[in-house]
Design a protein that fits this description.
Length: 390
């Protein structure tokens, strides 16, 4: 029996590869000769670099870069086995966990370090960069990132702005000068992994929706939103790109817009990127079963999350998909309409979150064993019915 194990990570607990290994352990209790193929997955958010490096046999690279508050931080990104594809999570360099207290101020935080990671990858031979842009501490429209790549921002007096790009300084920008952008960046193919559809500005924009969680007061939100709107107008005038209404432009405090405007990036669904990068369709072809999963399975799982993406790929090859969740909500049955054929919970009884996490590998192995035993019962029933018809 060929079984594809393609779960997401269980955030703050297990990597996707560890989850898949736990599934395999439970399966082998029942089917010791089963051919279990582990394909670590992610949907563009936390864990994307880890899953793609694990799935492709790549390597990790560490780089000291400028953190969101201006102090140096050690950030990690991945280089896939082809040596030409880098995978970056902007949160490694410019993420919310890197700031605390008074540092949580989106008027001052910057994406400069994210730009440094992009440039480092390009210098190491990357021709393609996949960048996940969730979990940012910033609201600078990608201006800091662009400065690191060599883009110059000019004030009304015609002088270059030497201040590091941040949400509060965008109103000083009058023009954008792309002449000195690093030549390596011009050759890059950059794909932005984001399932955030928020526009750059307005009530559903970067500042209003995400600003408060980064430390923005209501007054700051107004300043940030106005600044991003002004930046979008300058981008349209100088670069001939309209980003204000671009779907996903508001992701990561406008970094989505900045990557498109300054680095020629294109947006793509995170799960679609990972499905393509892991070549999961080839793994699924000819298999008997796919088991996926994530920390919590609910109705939203059906929309752009790892289990639904994996199920969609499996459906094309007529292979059934079962999702195992750390927990399953009451509305999770809705996923059955979106390609997932069965559900199982890792927790077989009521327990605290601490207990569930402490014994998560055991719970996941047990859940996978239960799934296989039920499938074998179904096969016996079908065989019995077939014999009766004869």
């Amino acid at each position: 029996m060929k079984i594809i194990l393609a779960p997401d990570s269980f955030k703050g607990n297990l990597t996707s590869l560890q989850v898949a290994a736990a599934f395999e352990k439970g399966i082998k209790r029942v089917l010791p000769k089963a051919n279990c193929i582990k394909v670590p997955m992610a949907d563009g958010g936390e864990g994307t670099v880890q899953s793609l490096v694990d799935a492709t046999g790549g390597k990790f690279i560490r780089k000291r870069v400028t953190g969101p508050a201006g102090s140096p931080v050690s950030a990690r990104y991945g280089m896939l086995a082809d040596g030409e594809t880098a995978v970056i999570e902007m949160a490694e360099a410019s993420g919310l966990p890197l700031v605390s207290g008074k540092q949580m101020n989106p008027l001052k935080t910057t994406t400069y370090g994210t730009g440094e990671l992009i440039l480092d990858a390009a210098k190491r031979g990357a021709k393609k960069i996949i960048i996940g842009i969730g979990g940012s501490a910033t609201n600078d429209g990608g201006v800091g990132m662009a400065q690191a790549l060599g883009v110059r921002f000019i004030n009304k007096q015609g002088s270059e702005i030497t201040e590091t790009g941040a949400g509060g300084m965008l109103d000083k920008i009058a023009h954008i000068d792309m002449k000195d952008i690093n030549p390596l960046v011009k050759k890059l193919k950059i794909i932005v992994a984001s399932d955030v559809n928020n526009p750059l500005c307005g009530k559903t924009g970067a500042s209003a929706v995400f600003g408060p969680q980064k430390g923005a007061t209501p007054a700051m939100v107004k300043i940030l939103d106005t600044n991003l709107k002004d930046l979008a107008n300058i981008i349209k005038t100088d670069l001939k790109k309209d980003v204000v209404n671009l779907k996903g432009a508001g992701a990561a405090g406008g970094l989505g817009a900045g990557l498109v405007a300054f680095a020629g990036a294109r947006m793509k669904s995170g799960i679609d990127i990972v499905l393509e990068a892991t070549n999961i369709a080839q793994h699924i072809k000819g298999s008997d079963l796919v088991i996926t999963g994530e920390g919590r399975v609910d109705f939203q799982t059906a929309f752009g999350k790892t289990p639904s993406g994996v199920a969609k790929a499996a459906r094309k090859h007529h292979v059934p998909t079962i999702a195992i969740g750390g927990g399953i909500t009451d509305d999770a049955n809705g996923v059955f309409m979106h390609g997932i054929d069965g559900l199982e919970s890792a927790c077989a009884r009521d327990m605290s979150l601490d207990e569930a996490i402490a014994n998560s590998k055991q719970h996941l192995a047990n859940a996978a064993e239960r799934v296989i035993r039920l499938i074998l019962i179904g096969k016996k029933l079908n065989k019995k019915k077939s014999g009766q018809r004869k």
